[in-house]
Amino acid sequence: MSLTTDDVRKVAHLARLGLDETELDGYARELSSILDVVDHLGQADTADIAPMSHPLDLGARLREDKPDAAIDREAFQRVAPDVAEGVYRVPKVIE
Amino acid sequence: MMHDRSIAELIAAVRAGETTPAALADHFLARIERLDPQLNALITATPERARAAAAIAPQTGSLAGLPILHKDIFCTKEVKTSCGSRMLDNFVAPYDATVVERLHGAGTVTLGKTNMDEFAMGSSNENSYYGPVKNPWNLDHVPGGSSGGSAAAVAAGLAPAATGTDTGGSIRQPAALCGVTGIKPTYGRVSRYGMIAFASSLDQGGCFARSAEDCAHVLGAMAGFDPRDSTSVERDVPDYVGGLSGDVAGLRIGLPREYFADGLEAESRAAIDAAIAQYEALGATIVWIDMPHTDLAVSTYYVIAPAEASSNLARYDGVRYGHRCDNPQDLDDLYTRSRAEGFGAEVQRRIMVGAYVLSAGYYDAYYVKAQKTRRLIAQDFQSAFESVDLIAAPVTQAPAFKLGEKADDPVSMYLNDVYTLPASLAGVPGMSVPAGFAHGLPVGLQLIAPWFEEARLLNAAHAYQQVTDWHTARPAGFE
């Protein structure tokens, strides 16, 4: 599998990674060589094999829907880059 | 010297009043200060916090006064938790990981946080924002990764034990390359709460120490059900230390042919063969087995792990914590520049591979296919454990490579993990046990047990360490 610089631009957009134009060639080459390794999977016979999403094949554990100890809002917001009056600030999204 | 004593001896000395938690902390803090500049094994040393904690540490508790280092992937309240990334260079965790909390509760004293590949992605520790860790056996060589700082620190006697995490080999491989004992428990055995996520269906916490007996002490305090981790398993933790009989007579040990094929370097092979002969001398039965899907592990892992990573690392958005770019023009600019600046090249590669294999049109061909081949690999272990009690194999194909040797070639770095990935994908517990030297560098013997049989694993390693002394070797300059 060979990725073009256009493919890299698209996947970088999906992942919200702001790449420089100068980085696209290098990433196209590296991602292609990684996908070459991964393409080996195509040779495996997986007819009648169920996908395995969890190593222990356990389902999700549920708990009673009861309120737990509340998190410390102030402590959690102390590590945020920009907070005002208890809310996270981001660039304006609505005119 | 204190750093040559076992954990059992250190705890006994504290209990008997022969030493104090404060004296232990001082001894190891002095070694960190003197020796770590050569190694770069720590991202953050916390001497003041350690001394304050040691001063009030109880002299009881299963690990009373034991100094410990935590991989910088575990959240530590009020202490920087970087995960080896610029993204979290400014992150001071608001809470403790369960592992940190439990070890603290058992009486350990935290000396600092260890260096690692960024977000645990790497096999050489060269992907750290804080620079590579050096291997104490030869400073021109890598310590392995991603828990390279923890492995190097224990090898150099900077702490009696350190925590680590293993997603595809990140405890076993650096343990092997640094000549220390490391255990990756069964998936779900140790809580992932507060352990920064890389690939959630694979990540598992464990530890490094100098011997299996030391690991048994530390793992016993770390393991167990945690309601705050939805993948934590509700199952009692056996007494790992009490289970160390040292008896392996009658144990059936399987050697997978696929792990001894071309590619295994000759001197490493000789060390592994000698270790296996040692088990035979101890009364174990050695049989060759087949694990026919082993060659699918690398390709399976490098779909599943990046896919999960791309989802997990979507949380780093420059809004709630972590790096934020200067003067964002709009929300998209905030996301894309914060992420491009905050993540290193290997993390960006894996995020993009993950986004690609999960994207429309490729999901079935890559992601679902890899989930199916993952089951084939797990079934190899299931069938193997119908006829053997334990699997023995090399951890790596060769001893530690040189810094920079593979740094420009992500694929050759990935192929490095060929012997550790299958156990990770299956979720079974694995260990690396020092088994000699090749070209002057340590070789690790890998032992793999069935799901939740950590006690069997630790006992088998302990038996070997009763009749060999590879695990007590100390690199020159770090005596």
Structural topology:
The complex is a heterodimer of chains A (95) and B (479).
Chain A: H1 5-14, H2 24-38, H3 73-77, E1 83-84, E2 87-88
Antiparallel strand pairs in A: 1-2
Chain B: H1 7-15, H2 21-39, E1 42-45, H3 47-56, E2 67-71, H4 98-105, E3 109-114, H5 148-155, E4 161-166, H6 172-178, E5 181-184, E6 204-209, H7 212-222, E7 252-256, H8 266-281, E8 285-289, H9 297-312, H10 331-342, H11 345-357, H12 363-387, E9 390-394, H13 410-415, H14 421-426, E10 430-438, E11 441-448, H15 454-467
Parallel strand pairs in B: 2-3, 7-8, 7-9
Antiparallel strand pairs in B: 1-3, 4-6, 5-6, 5-10, 9-11, 10-11
Helix pairs in contact in B: 2-3, 5-6, 7-15, 9-11, 9-12
General description of the model:
The complex is a heterodimer of chains A (95) and B (479). With 95 residues, chain A is mainly alpha-helical. Chain A contains 3 helices and 2 strands. Chain A has a domain at 5-42. Chain A has a two-stranded antiparallel sheet. In chain A, strand 1 (83-84) and strand 2 form a beta hairpin. The two termini of chain A are 43 Å apart. By secondary structure, chain B is of the alpha/beta class. Chain B is built from 15 helices and 11 strands. In chain B, the strands form 2 sheets. Chain B has an 8-stranded mixed beta sheet with strand order 4-6-5-10-11-9-7-8, with helices on both faces. Chain B has a 3-stranded mixed beta sheet with strand order 1-3-2. In chain B, strand 2 (67-71), helix 4 (98-105) and strand 3 form a beta-alpha-beta unit. The longest helix of chain B has 25 residues, at 363-387. The chains are: A mainly alpha (95), B alpha/beta (479).
